[in-house]
Amino acid sequence: MAKELILAKYGEMALKGLNRGTFEDILMKNLRRRLKKFGAFKLNRAQSTIYMEPLSEDIDLDEVLEHLQCVFGIAALCRACVCEKTMEDISAKAVPYLEEVLLGAKTFKVEAKRADKAFPLKSPEICAELGGILLDAYPHLSVDVRHPDVTVMVEIRDTHAFVHGANLKGAGGLPVGSSGKALLLLSGGIDSPVAGYRMARRGVHISAIHYVSPPYTSDRAQEKVEQLCQELTPYCGNIAFFCVPFTEIQEAIKKYCPEEYFTVIMRRLMMEIAQKIAAKDNCLALIAGESVGQVASQTMQAIACTDAVSRIPVFRPLIGSDKTEIVETARMIGTFETSTLPYEDCCTVFTPKHPKVRPSLEEVEKAQGKFDFTEMVNKAVEGTTMKVFELS
Ligand code: ATP
Ligand code: MG
Fold it and tell me: Mind spelling out the 3-state secondary structure of 141-167?
């Protein structure tokens, strides 16, 4: 059987200048970690591509490919057959290698990329020659250069040539870890897991923080959020999960502050705590899942009141997204089912009947000033527990 490997082509990273090497190193490290459970691979890189060569025969490359489709920093992926740099070897290997995919097709075309300009045939000549050989071997096929069922790629590179069928789409973005770390405020809802996914796609390593208010919220609610963390790991890598005891603070808000400001005060206190945890965990920013106008607490005025307490940036990657788009992404990444399990969030425990939709900072500060939360905030930070969810 011909030797096969996996090719992963960079996306945006290919455009990086001087520090491109750093991005490549991080991507290689992320890939190595991801491949470990499948067996031994040899990794190389050249010409905006990473070559992953399996070192044993029993590795299921399709399964590996499926997992690699979640790795950020990769634009396209394929399994490819390794050939000598001669048309004889390319043709001899391409015919049996492509059997399965070509038998399932009616039309095809060949595309050639000649990174090695010293190769004696030019790209159109490679296409014509291999196209002819494939037509002879599979007479049921015809060529369709516009809408072929299958595009066969021939790549002539430094040391070898590669033949493969169509590319699979990669996850895009930048490798996780290339943009530093940020702390995701993760509720059990649909939005915040998607917000975390979006920032991870920009190369941000994610930690997560979740606030619980037992006995108003159940263990099941917390387990649901932990499950969401686990479901994010194929994209985000390992996630440190911080769980904050929030009952006392919520009871104090209810007891001392005017009802119409409950939600915005609660958000501000969440932010206070999140910043302290972020500092301990080396996170440079917070991430939250709001989208303008989605609910009463997500008006620009309410967001302004929330952000007024944060001394580090608060990223809201969903701010301009419609709910339908967010739901679509949640389904695509596989968090939707878990997010829609019916357990209560601490936000819903003391929801005011008539929340102030457009609060001013002055009124909110006054409402919150009815009680000094400093000590309770510190206590909540001290009582915060941490566990790590590992890549699954
Ligand atoms: P989600 O679908 O993410 O729950 P939502 O539309 O329900 O969002 P809100 O309840 O207004 O929105 O919460 C806004 C944001 O505040 C959430 O996206 C999340 O980032 C954060 N948040 C809310 N509740 C919690 C919680 N219990 N723990 C951690 N973060 C929370
Ligand atoms: Mg919610």
Answer: CEECCCCCCEEEEEEECCCCEEEECCC
Domains and CATH numbers, the chain: 4-169 (3.30.2130.30), 181-389 (3.40.50.620)
Give yes or no for residue 211 CB within 6 A of ligand 1.
yes
Q: Which residue has the tokens 């075309």?
A: 109
- Comparing CA positions, the residue from 90, 113, 149 lying closest to residue 9 is 113
Quick one: which atom of ligand 1 is closest to the CA of 318?
18
Q: What are the pLDDT digits (tens) for 326-337?
A: 999 999 999 999
Longest dimension (CA), the chain: 85
Q: The tokens of 163 are what?
A: 């033949």
Helix H or strand E encompassing 5: strand 4-10
Q: Is 267 annotated as a binding residue?
A: yes
CA distance to 49, 231, 326, per residue, from 173 (Å): 15, 19, 18
User: Does 192 sit in the ligand 1 pocket, CB within 6 Å?
Assistant: yes
Task: Looking at the CA of 298, name the nearest ligand.
Answer: 1
pLDDT at residue 284 is higher than 80 = yes
For the CA of 190, the nearest atom of ligand 1: 2
Q: Is the pLDDT of residue 2 over 80?
A: no
185 assigned binding-site residue: yes
Burial class (CB in 10 A: 0-12, 13-18, 19+), 43: middle
Instruction: Output the average pLDDT for the chain.
Output: 94
